[in-house]
Amino acid sequence: MQTKHSIIIYLVMSLTFMCGWLYLFRDNLAMRTIGVSVFPILWGTLSFLWTFNAYRMIKGVKRNFWLFISIGLIFYLISNVFWVMNFMMTGDHVFPNSSYLFWLFTYLFFFIGLIYKVKLLSLTVSHNPYVFNIVTFMIVATSISSHYLIRPVLVATDNSVGLTIISLIYPVASLGIIFAMTYLYYLSKQTNEKETVLYVVIGFSLQACADWGYAYTTLTHGEYTPGGVIDPVWLTSLMVIGLAGLKAQHNATSPVLEINDEIQSQETLFPYLSSVVLIVLSAQSYDWSFNLLSVGATIVFLAIMGRQFLVIRRNEQLMKEYKHLAYHDPLTGLKNRVSFQEEIERYLAHSERHHTSTVLMLIDLDRFKAINDTLGHHIGDEVLIRAGNRLNTGLNAHRVYRLGGDEFVFILSGVDQEKYIQLAEKVIHLFTVPFHVKGHEMSVTPSIGISMYPENGNDSASLLKNADAAMYLAKANGSNQYCVYNAQLALAHERKIRVENELKKAVETEQLFLVYQPIVELETGRPIGMEALLRWVHPELGFVSPAEFIPIAEETGQIVCVGEWVLREACEQTKRWHDEGYAYLYVSVNVSARQIQQGSFVHLVQTTLQKTGLSVEKLELEITESIMQDPSRSTKVLNDLQHLGVKTAIDDFGTGYSSLYLLKELPINTIKIDKAFVDDMTNNRGHSVVKSIIQIGRNLGLKIIAEGIEHETQVEELLQDSCHYGQGYHYLKPAPVNEFALYLTKVEEEKSLG
């Protein structure tokens, strides 16, 4: 930073010194001529060194630009050396032909360098946003230079071809450099070279202005006299071009991030401001006949009008695109929720005016989450696209909407029950063919919920809510079917909502309680433990079955806080019984997959045991196959529980397709044979199944407990098959604390008598 400031100070001092020299020797043509030739030679040499070093330091094709600029500066130096030598020998301050020739080569290499840089940047940067700015500026520049320089030159040369070419070559060359420089400036706005290019642009702009000033002075005064305003401008242009090379060296050693600037407002206004300048000059020079300025102004005006027309057309196209994006799903191309909300209101208004029906058909893809989780979202997205295409093709495309996720909705207007049932069956038929996506074959089925205006709701929100309720009932009934919302479903849905809401308050208001069923040793009938089972009695709803509220708790996530209460209550009560003399009892508590997948579950179990004082070996946790929704997470949690000393059991063993897989993969201590198998022991086949389960458990070293024992004959058969533990109504139905305590007392009395 200090070096940069030093260079700028030196630049200003040099420029000030030159201006002072010219002022001091304003009456001495010889000294002025020496000053305006020596100073450019000195600064030209320094600028050459900076640009050539930039060529050496920069790697790749970018370095060639600085090579062309360096060569141009060499010719510039040579032309000035020839000029000062000619002046020293002849005393003539007019530029010799040799200087003009080398200056021509200077322009040639400068122009080649600029064009090369433009070509290089245009390979990676789009020039489209700036075409209008560039073209407008060049029309303005060409018009002004043509009016004030080129046209007078043509008049002055009196149609002499040779003289015309010689006189025009430098103004035209300057115009070409201005064009390339403007193009380069706009291209560089989107790169990390924009500061360096800005130095180049300023340098060549000053060079062109000085050249035009020289041409204008020669044209109006007959010859150029050294020491005028033009010479400091030439010197400044050399200085700034050299600084550009110095800046390029700094960038080569200190890489910076790529910058993508937006088009600034001043850049947007630039072509219009330059057009105003042209119009003002045109008006000032206007003599009731077209001249080059007025021709340029006319062209610029037409260009601006054309651009405004294109902008309006483009804006209209963008508005159409934005509207399409706002009202359509980007993945499937179907109309989205916003479009649905607007259009359903129109359908309902039409139905109200004409007393017709409007039907909503909500379609949800079964097992879609499993596809996403197992095969990845890219496969899931492709399934959604193809599902949308099937619905779009099979139904009226203007009435199919994607609400989000795997939910689609279809609107029907003015149809009867027969018609919408036919369409629901058609939707189911559309999905009978499996999807083939990237080597995977997937059978995806729909669950459909149907609601109708005005029978099932008077607004879109209630219709959608009721269709959603019907859809979930269709899923509960086995998926791949439809369900029409009706009064009975409405009552069931209302009850579900109420149960969900009341369950939130059940723990706080002590509506929940535990009942206990003994786990006994079959040979003696004496209890070794008990299973804690959750019950709920609501002050208004009465007894709410666990089969009803536990799935709701699972679905809403309330099972986490409810399960925490159950674990704590069961451990506390078991510890009380231990303190009363029943220390041999253990308690078995059911836990859900959602509880286990909570990151803090193991800590919760450990904390609960510590707070209640229950020994870790007296707690057993019962799980079901739903735990395999996240096998890696579940395995880790169960291993941590085993290390803690907590036993685990598989509840309802044999009812799920993955039961044997659970035994293989998870750390399990106990299997509980489901009641359905115990009930079926009366026939040979059912008995064989139970016997096989017992044999598997024994081979794996697991404890086996038979559930749902109701008859003594079942006890005898289980003992014969080497099953030593069980539970069921034969011993005691699930009982509240006081009744279970009486049961324990009775057992102890029988034990003391026997």
TrEMBL record:
Transmembrane feature ranges: 7-24, 30-53, 65-88, 100-118, 130-150, 162-185, 292-310
SMART domains attached to this UniProt entry: EAL (SM00052), GGDEF (SM00267)
Xref: InterPro entries: Biofilm_reg_signaling (IPR052155), EAL_dom (IPR001633), EAL_sf (IPR035919), GGDEF_dom (IPR000160), Nucleotide_cyclase (IPR029787), Rev_trsase/Diguanyl_cyclase (IPR043128)
Record-annotated GGDEF domain positions: 356-487
Taxonomic superkingdom: Bacteria
Gene3D superfamilies, alphabetized: 3.30.70.270, EAL domain
Keywords: Membrane, Transmembrane, Transmembrane helix
Boundaries of every EAL domain copy: 496-748
Family matches, as PANTHER family: BIOFILM ARCHITECTURE MAINTENANCE PROTEIN MBAA, DIGUANYLATE CYCLASE DGCP
Protein name, as recorded: EAL domain-containing protein
Originating species: Salipaludibacillus agaradhaerens (Bacillus agaradhaerens)
Lineage summary: Bacteria, Bacillati, Bacillota, Bacilli, Bacillales
